[in-house]
Design goal:
The protein is α+β, with helices and mostly antiparallel strands. 46% of the residues lie in helices and 18% in strands. The longest helix has 63 residues, at 232-294.
Length: 295
Amino acid sequence: MNTNGNTYTVIYSTILVVLVAAILAFVAMSLQGKQNENVKLETISKLLGAASQADESLVMDENADVLALYAEKIEDAFYVNGLGEKVGQMNTGKENVKDIQVTTTSDLKKQNDIIKKIEDGQGDLASTLAMPVYVFDINGNDVTVIPCYGAGLWGPIWGYLAINADGKTIDGAVFDHKGETPGLGAKIADAPFYNAFHGKTLNLDGDEVFTVAKASAITEPDHSVDAISGATITSQALGKSINLWAKYYRPYLAGAAAAHQAGTAAVSDSTVTCCAPADSVKTAGTAEVKVNVEE
């Protein structure tokens, strides 16, 4: 074959491309398991990072075994639809940490796509949503962690909000991004920004559940945080994502809060019911003793 001809060049280039593609595909498949494990660990770290903010005494150690800590602290992990109904269960890893199931950003994107279709009027798809809910036991208190996901300035942004048992108070938050501007929009992943969410509340009764805006534009400070200076677009995009996802979590959060309040009331009532007869018995017993002594 003429090595200087076009035919030789085409054949040689084709073989080279196919060979390189095969090698890359093999490497990708070989590393897929490790990549998935890293994604899981990253997600679990974010979940614990948000939940742990509910108690200042609980500090996340960089060297901590996140799988073991997650299995220890998680109480339940499941999916709910936009009507507040439970539609699926995740393995919490109580028996084997290797079986822990969490949703990744690709899973969140799928749910976000459905949410956008609903918002665009493409159908009543709220019942088809499968949004993750994680309930942690943080020093005896239930802390529910829910995610949010959306489009930032240069790529996807996402995060996790830790919600108090009252269904609306934010106990902690963490956020991340794929390609926001360093020193500007990328600051959503920094503590000075996400710490501002602690103690704020979701407005479950209003049209705007939560906002991130310039200080001058904030009208409801209890349900808002200040935007990052110089990164208004990313900040507002994050606020929109939180507001949108919280809107579809609202039925579940409202129901969970009502159940918690009912449970608290039941415990309180049972305590009163329990103690009243005990006092009566004690009084009756004392009176009876006195009678016997006098006789």
